[in-house]
Amino acid sequence: MAEGSNGRRRFSDKWGKHELDVLAVLSSAFPQWLTSRQIAQRVKAYADSYGELADQAAKAAFAKQFQRDRAKLAAMGIAIESRQPEYSSKSEGQDFASYRLQLGDEPRVRLRFEQEDLPVLAAANYLARSMSISSSASHQPEQHTSRTAPRVPQTPIPGLGLDSIAPGLGTQTIPDALVKVIDSRRFAATIDVNGEHLNVAYTDSDDLAMFVLEHPGAYVVSPREAAEALNRRLHAATQFTLADSSQNGAGASVVPETISRRIEEPDDPEYSKDHQKRPIASFQTGSEVDRRLRLMLFLSAHLGEEFSLGELAERFIGEPKSQEELKKYVAVIRKDINTLTTVSDDGEMAGSQFFDIDWSLLDSEGIVSATNSLGLERLAGISQQYLSMLTASVSYLAHSPLLPDAQRKQAQSLYMRLRQHVEPGETPWLSLTGYEMEPRSFTVVNRAISTGTLLDMEYTDGAGRTRRKLVAPAKIYVDEGRYYTAVWTDVERVAPEDKEKFVSKDTTINKVTGQPRIWQVLRLSRIERAEIVEPTGPVEIPDVPVSELRLWSFDNGTPAVFITDQHRLPYISTLPDATVEACGKGEKVHLTVSSDSWFVAFCIAHARHIIAVAPETLLSMILARAERELSLVHDDEMAAQPDLAAELVGE
C-alpha cells in the first residue's frame, strides 16, 4: 500500500471510499469546472481503476462509480452540479460533462446552539429533510413527476452543513414514534387552505383526500397527479348507492357481485407491486465516512480555533461511559484527523489533504487546530432557504403531539430564537396528515388543568349552536390526530356566585356508558372562547382513563354503514368500535359516527373501494359534498383556461 510524502496512508487506498477524494479535487479547483476525464485523472482511486478511460467499458465503470459517489455527497448536503461543455472537434466525437461544487448564490448561515437544543434540533432536521417541497416550490414551474417516486428534496439539503454549526447533532437519538410518523408519510403536496399554502406530507392518495376534505375550501395546488387522484374519488363518490343498514348481511342484495367499481390507480403506491419504500437517510448515526465529513465541515467552520480530542470525540461519537471508552473514542478521532490530512505521493494526483494541522500542539497536548481548508468553509453552515424550512419544522414540533412535553417547550424556545434570523413571510407552513396543530384554546385549557381551576367557555356544539358553560377540564388527549378535552360539569359547589348561571350538569343517562352525563368531551377546536375562573374550593374530579372518556363522544352518534368491494382493507382495522361482516365479495362495516362531516370526508376519501352507504341522510350529504367539490374544480379549471371558458360561453 502506497505511503504519502508525510508517511501517512492514502484514504482511498486504505478504506476503498472515494467521496473525500472527490470533494478534495472539486474544492481545490473551485470555481473552475472539471471534466469527467480530469476528475478520473486526479482522484487516485479512479485513476488506478480506470486508467485513461481508454475504452467504453472503463468509461461506463467510471461513470457508474462517480455518480454513486456524487449521490452520496448530495444526500449529505454537498451537491455537485454538472454542465455539458461545448463540442470540440478534438474530442473525436466524445465529450464529457463537467462538474464543480454547488455552493449557491447566498452565504451560509452560522448560528450558535446550546447543548439542550440538540435533541429538538435533530428531530426538526429529520422532519425538514423529509419534506420534498421547499419553501420556494410554489414559485417554481410544475413538473410532471411519478407519484410512486419517494419524496426527494427539490434542492440539496445541507444535513452535514448543519452538523458543522451544531456539533453533536449526529449523536442524538430521534424518538422512534416520530420517525415512524414521518417515514409513513412519504409523499408531499402543496395544499391551499384559506389562502395559505401548506406543504403537507401524506401516506397515500386516500390520506391526502381525507386531509383536503376535512379543511373546507382547501384544494390541491401541486402535484397534478395528487389533484387528479382526488378528482377520481369525488367522481366515484357520486356513484354511491344506498346500503341496507341491517346486521344480517342482507345488504349484499343491493350490490350485485358482478359489479365492482374499484378504481385502478397504477400511479398510487399501493398498486405498484415493485414499489419499495426508500427510507429517508437521517445520517444521525452514519458510517465512518459520514462522521469524517461532519468533522471536516465543523473544522472548516472553526479554522484556527482549538479543540481537544476528547471534546471532539464526545461531539462526533457520543458521551463515553468509561475512561476506557473515552480512550477508544479519542483514538478514533485521531485516526479521522490523520485521514483528513492525507496527501498523495503523486504530484499529478490530488489527495485528501483538507487541512494544515498544528501537529506539535496535537502531539504534545491532544489539541486540534486546523487551517487552510481548501475553501471548504464555504460549505459550513446552512442556506437561508433551509433555515426557513428548519424553523418551520421546529415550530410544528412545538405545536403538535409528536414530542414529549419537555422537548416541546424546548422547541418553542428554539423557535423564538430561530425566527429572528428568518425574514417575515419566508417560513413555510408544514403539516403531517392526521396531526393537527394545537388549537388556540389549548394553552388556556391546559393551564386550567395544571392549576386545578375552572373554565368559563363558549363552544360550538354538534348542531352548530354556540353554548356557554362553566366546567372543570380534566384531561387533554389526542385521538386520530385531533385534540379533545374531557370536562367535568358537576361544579355547582365550587362555582363563584356570578358564574352559577353557567353551570349545566346533565344527569340524564348516557346511552353508551350507562352513566349520568356529568362528563362531556369536546374537540378543542370547537372552543371559541375560554377564560380561567378561580373556584371557591378544591375541585374534586374522578380519575377516569382516556379509553373510557372516548365513549362519551359517541353519546349522540349516528349509526352508519358502508359496504366495500373487497375484503380486509387495511384502514377498516383503524376504525374504533367498528363491526365487520362479510357482504358478497366485500364487507359491510357498522360504526357509530360522532361527526357527520368526518364520515362524509372518510367515505369520499376511500371512494375507490366503497360502493354503498347508509343511512340515507349521510348518503345525501356525501353526494352533495362530492358534487360541490367537483363544481369548484371545474370553476378553477375554467379560471385557468380563459380562452376555453369564453368558447363555452359563446356556445
Order of strands, widest sheet: 7-20-17-19-18
Unreliable spans: 1-16, 87-95, 132-158, 249-264, 266-285, 344-351, 640-651
Helix content: 25-40%
What class do helices, strands and sheet pairing give?
A: alpha+beta
Q: What is the residue-averaged pLDDT?
A: 76
Distance between the termini: 82 Å
Rg result: 30 Å
The largest β sheet comes out as:
5 strands, mixed
Count of helical regions: 21
The geometry reads as globular
The total tally of domains equals: 4
Number of strands: 20
Proportion of residues in extended strands: 15-25%
Description:
37% of the residues lie in helices and 17% in strands. It has 651 residues and is an alpha+beta fold. It has 21 helices and 20 strands. The protein folds into 4 domains: 11-102 and 304-372, no CATH class; 115-156 and 174-239 and 259-279 and 383-432, no CATH class; 442-552; 558-639, 2-Layer Sandwich (Alpha-Beta Plaits), CATH 3.30.70. Strand 12 and strand 13 form a beta hairpin. The strands form 5 sheets. Strands 7-20-17-19-18 form a 5-stranded mixed beta sheet.
Map the helices and strands.
Elements: H1 11-15, H2 19-29, E1 34-35, H3 36-42, H4 44-50, H5 56-75, E2 80-83, E3 98-101, H6 118-130, H7 159-165, H8 176-184, E4 187-193, E5 196-202, H9 205-213, E6 219-222, H10 224-237, E7 241-242, H11 288-301, E8 306-308, H12 309-316, H13 323-340, E9 356-357, H14 359-365, E10 367-371, H15 384-398, H16 405-418, E11 429-432, H17 442-451, E12 454-460, E13 466-479, E14 482-488, E15 519-523, E16 527-533, H18 546-552, E17 558-564, E18 579-583, E19 586-593, H19 596-605, E20 610-614, H20 616-640, H21 642-650
Parallel strand pairs: 5-11, 7-20
Antiparallel strand pairs: 1-3, 2-3, 4-5, 4-6, 8-10, 9-10, 12-13, 12-16, 13-14, 14-15, 17-19, 17-20, 18-19
Helix pairs in contact: 3-4, 6-8, 6-15, 7-11, 9-10, 9-19, 10-20, 11-13, 12-13, 15-16, 19-20
